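Can't attach files on this board, so I'm pasting raw text. These are the components:
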Amino acid sequence: MSWILIAEQSLNGLQFGLMLFLLAAGLTLVFGIMDMINLAHGSLYMLGAFLASTFVQLTGSFTAGVLLAIPATAVLGMALEVTLLRTLYQRDHMAQVLATFALILIINELTRLVWGSDASLPMPGALSGPVELMPGLPYPAYRLLIIVVGLAVALLLFFLVTKTKVGMLVRAGASNREMALAMGVNIRLLFTLVFGAGAALCAVAGAMLAPLLAVQVGMGENILILAFVVIVIGGIGSIRGALVGALLVGIVDTIGRAFLPILFGLFFQPRVASAAGPAIASVSIYLLMAVVLYFRPQGLFPARG
Amino acid sequence: MKTKIPVFVLLVLFPLAMLWADQLFYVSFASRVMIYAIAATSLNLVLGYGGMISFGHAAFVGTGAYVGSILVAEGVTSAFIGWPAAIAVSALAAWIIGAISLRTRGVYFIMITLAFAQMMFYLVNSMKAYGGDEGLSLRQRPSLLFDLGNEVAFYYVVLFLLLLSIFLLYRLMRSRFGRVVVAIRENEARAEAVGFPVYRYKLVCFVIAGAGAGLAGALLASHGKYVNPNVLHWVQSGTLMIMVILGGVGHLWGGVLGAAVLLGLEHLISDYPIGWLASLAPNYQQHANLGVGLVMLAIVLFAPQGIAGLMERRKNASP
Amino acid sequence: MKIKLLAVALCFAANAHAADRVKVGLITTLSGPNAAIGSDIRDAFQLAVKLNGGKLGGLPAEVIVGDDQFKPDVGRQLAEKNVKVDRVNFLTGIVFSNIMLASAPIAFENKTIYVSPNAAPSPMAGKDCNPYLFVASWPNDAYHEAAGQHATNRGYKNTYLIAPNYQAGKDSLAGFKRYYKGNIAAEVYTQLGQLDYAAELAQVRAAKPDALYIFLPGGMGVNFIKQFVAAGLSKDIPLLVPGFGDDQDIIRPVGDATLGLFDTAHWAIDLDNAANRKFVAAFEKEYKRLPTVYASQGYDSALLIDAAVRDTKGKIEDVEAVRKAMKATKFESVRGAFKFNRNQMPIQNYYLRVVSKDSQGRLYNKVLGTVFKDHGDAYVQDCKMK
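---
Top answer:
Structure tokens for the assembled complex are below.
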């Protein structure tokens, strides 16, 4: 097992984890501040990818397309919040779960009506080759871009949340909503903005991952569960928790996919070893969640006292 | 009771009428609706009566389906063995999963049930010996004393099991156990303060529901002679939830109504094109889910008690 | 039992009057990353019917198209509907083996002929062979056997193998290994439908093989080849694929990175026979794109049904007669001579192809030579049919 392999797989885990973080950050804020379980969060990720694909086709530029998709998705998200989701804040979790599940179905079909069941977002030509990180370790340039963007957004978020007034209000709302309300914070506006920010983050993840994966209806459901697992591990309402949780999940997933099949291959036939790897990797992510919940039921970095 | 007797007679005569009209497909379809009704009723127990939002219910349906199928595939073709085995294994799975999950509350409970369901999904997917992603096809249905390959016979068996399930639910909810479960749902803290072992009651409720789901799963696999890991996917749990909500969460016939309406509408939309709608939107039949989503949203927002709830309101409202 | 017999008799009685047209159920993958494959099969099939004046074998044809969404349970439901409600005379169209294994048995159990335009899993060539299955494409292992032979011919000593973890994936690598005499560096099975191959590519790099053979159809192949090139591996490791691994549906999104890729297949655009020339020209004219092997198979499926119906003089309600006709039929296939084996899978040639540019600068697969002549499959001896 060469160090090159380890380095490359670590970068892969980092890349995956950072994108997961973008999704989890929005989800954890919405849950933490508005106490709302939003199953349709994955749909915003999907919309971000579809919108990016359309804008890239319209403008002919990858960068322009992605940059346009971000505010577009944010606007859609905020519209959704103002019209529909706002009514769910008062309802119990079951109603929120059912309503947002219904929303997934609706958004999926509307997307299908507007775009068809898939769209394509090709990788920008300049980035479709490798970059020689160090001798013997070429790494796909595009994945490096994802890592850079992910880190940049994470830094931006931290700056916003810890150093700005809005960020302070967000943190206040997350740790003690009633107090924040009592202090006269314009809670409705804050909620809408938080939701919009979450949608924007989803769009970044969706647009960035689109050239690597496929833009298709239903792409949100698969990644949604992982995002929920991340915020449960990290602690609801905490961005720092979302980052740590996402990186943990990214690492476990990559180790599972990369190294477990090799380990199993020593004992089992290739087909079984290859199937066991991803299966155990998924199971380990949930086991990780169970273990964290057992020792720290509020997650690793709970926002509330 | 007044509406129930004619409905019952209709249900009994239905397959004979279809047989005469050479439309056995609809008997098969009706069996499928009733099987889903059993599954939805079992979810209703834990979701509607018990107040536990379990997103992992599909895992128990799937467990029952796979146990039933694997036994037949391995040569055990008697349903007298296969179906009880499926119920037992699903109940066991529910006991294990419930024991761990019920130690948590709120969203954590939802997450953990979801996680367990996904774990089972991946586990089953990796069982290449039993088809993995392709699923497992059976050569024949399991047999009771008679051949269940006969659609009409199978229909009556399922009808009997469905009515039995409803009856059991009815008795359960009328019993002390049922009333405690509802009390826990209404106010858990108070129930605990009064001295009820809340955790134990919830667990038993969860296990009974899991057993019911297992039965439905075994029936589903027997009916279609096919099972595939998608049965366990969390989105399937969502579909079952839709049925329960649509029919009326916490109402005795909620699961049945929900399954009948959802599957019936689905079939009508995809197989019977409506002329004027088709000219407006040529592909509308492929977007049936849009209608389902809108209806479900409407119910959550405006009629949280579902169809059964609306019917009851009407009954209570009229003088 | 008596009730069943009565029902079946009624069915036949009802159908005896329905031979005024041919009903075909076409279930294929029309959404998701693999939609291009299903679209090709459907388009080619419908083209054949159109060129025939909207008829198959002299009877007006009604083709009922359904989308299996790459899901075995959806495919199976569509098969149920086609066979039991629409009462089709022929079922066809399925791309993927897992969907076919879930769906085709419905046709077999209900004495409906299934013509496969693609999937032909090895159990169905051997112990599970079925009189109602007719394969218009090739046995699942065939392309891979030819590739393995080619790899042996080329002297590759250490080959790395990747395929998705389902029946066809298993068949593919088994087929490759049957004719490849070198060393296997590794045999890796990915998840069906997987789109991100970062982890697998890192392993390939670490293993430093002589050659890499992948069976990744449709969207999986598109993503893999793109990521393979992006990781800088295309410079060092020759990539070998089965014929559809770098066909038009992959060439279109991937582009020039496919130039120079070798593959093996039973058909190519430049095969020189009258039927093929007509097909390629008509397909291009109608759909403004070059056909893939899938399209050629869909087209041949239609021609096969057309020949069988013609040979029974339109009496298609007699399913046994149609079967016999189909097994013995001679038709002008776009691949040249067409012959069924005992297990109703084709015996045919397999060619080595390479992605090149034609006179108009378009990328296409050019035939370089023949790897196998009149090649059957390795499972026929297990088949109990005569």
